[in-house]
Amino acid sequence: MLIKQKAKTLLNTFPPARVAKCIVDDSIQGLRLSLGQIDTNCGSTHSTRSTAESVAYIEEVFTDYKKYGNIEKFFGVAAEIGPGDNAGVALLMRQDGCTQVDLIDRYFSARNSQQQSKIYEALARRYELDRLHTKDYWDEQALANISWKIGQAAEKYFERCARERGQVYDFIVSRAVLEHLYDPLETLHQMVACLKPGGRMLHKIDFRDHGMFTPTHHELLFLQIPDFIYPLMVRNSGRPNRILVHRYRDVLESIKKSGLIDYSILITNLVNVGEILPHQVFTDIDIDKRRKAINFVEKHRRKLAGEFLHVDSQDLAIAGIFLIVTKKS
Ligand SMILES: C[S@@+](CC[C@H](N)C(=O)[O-])C[C@H]1O[C@@H](n2cnc3c(N)ncnc32)[C@H](O)[C@@H]1O
After folding, report:
1. φ and ψ at 327, to 5 degrees?
2. Which of 97, 142, 189, 229 suits a disulfide with 135, CB 3.0-4.6 Å?
């Protein structure tokens, strides 16, 4: 027991031990994936929530899409990437006006089906969703025109979609997912190719370290891990990919230059400050908050890994964004 406790303390307090553990975990996860074992706890968002808390979370995700995406009503065909353990957001999108919602996930997030049924029942009571289950009880596999595409990484799904089906989606949405993709930037190109003219993408992306080193260490420590080591810690396990705002902006600018899209980036979180509510463009954020975040970056930036040394401090201060992309008609 004492040895276990000491090992845990070592892992928490000594970053190289944590790095080594992540590399081992990631290799094991890679092996499991190659054997087709895709179950995970990542995405089991509702496992620790009460039914009321789950409903509130689903409502928040859905409302954020509409509010920040400036969407009066959802319609047509939508894809939600990384829904995790629940299809509640898809149900609300269907009820709002979507004719079909595809749920694309690389993993199978562990879930308790009884708990899930209670969430669906509670949602159905609030939003009159009963027409959306095709059995006489709530079974997530029998939701009208909601298709789970489990075991399909977004990277591959949208590459194939662009190649074989073309412009099929009116909306592509995600929350707390793109930071887990191993190649979100190439996937942005493919998702744009899969959007219909006038179609919209809404992605909330969290750039933080997801508890890899925090709260024991400061929140930029994960950006210190050398560039050649970091991918070994994250690629198979879905840990955060460390692709920050400047890289999204570069890709989006190049797609915009080709005349395909318009886009905007709202800030959801700042380093050393926390959540920014309502989400807003950087220059609209209170100046003291911006200074506080940038000063924190300046204090730590000389130790960062090579790929971050020349990144603007303002970009490194951005710990989360809400991305809105519209494909031109
Ligand atoms: C943090 S969870 C978020 C779940 C849900 N969107 C929410 O807000 O609670 C991340 C989700 O992304 C999924 N995911 C990770 N990598 C992925 C990939 N490459 N393609 C598709 N889904 C992925 C995970 O399986 C998980 O369901």
Report:
1. -80, 135
2. 142
Over residues 49-69, the mean pLDDT reads 97
Report long-range pairs for 82-85 (Cβ below 8 Å, ≥24 apart).
Answer: 82/43, 82/106, 82/154, 82/174, 82/175, 82/176, 82/177, 82/180, 83/43, 84/42, 84/43, 84/44, 84/45, 84/46, 84/109, 85/43, 85/44, 85/45, 85/46, 85/47, 85/109, 85/110, 85/111, 85/116
* pTM for the full predicted model: 0.95
Give residues (CB < 6 A) around ligand 1.
40, 42-43, 45, 61, 81-84, 104-107, 109, 153-155, 175-177, 180-181, 238
Measured distance CA(179)–CA(221) in Å, rounded: 17
Tens digits of residue pLDDT in 169-191? 999 999 999 999 999 999 999 99
Going from the Cα of 286 to the center of ligand 1, the distance in angstroms, rounded, reads 31
The reported pLDDT for the residue numbered 3 is 74
